[in-house]
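Service request form, structural biology core

Requester: graduate student, group of Dr. S.
Request type: structure prediction, single chain
Budget code: on file
Notes: please return the result as structure tokens.

Sequence provided:
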Amino acid sequence: QVQFVESGGGLVQAGGTLQLSCAASGFTLENYAVGWFRQAAGKEREGVAWISSHDGTTFYEDAVKGRFTISKDNAKNTAYLRMTQLRPEDTAVYYCARVIVTRNDFGEVVGYRGSDYWGQGTQVTVSS
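Core staff response, request fulfilled:
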């Protein structure tokens, strides 16, 4: 049974740092691209970052590029999201999920989405 358990969220002041963890079970994390998504109150869930299955290629949305770092520890079957220079607009529930990446005929990434299973999320609140 595929499961994700997110943790590490909390209340932090603007400019602060948090590290989120995503403990995966029921499958081998190394074999899948995994990503972080977030959903702010009253808004749709959006992608934040993802990391590829084997070569560690990463992708970040412009809103978090340079501030957030996604990583994973295959031995622990756990993915991480280190968030620095946090802003009030980063306030949201953060989720992790397996990712399906769409590429064009040239192999360039043109989109991605969370696939099947989702965890319960972890709340991140950034005060100004």
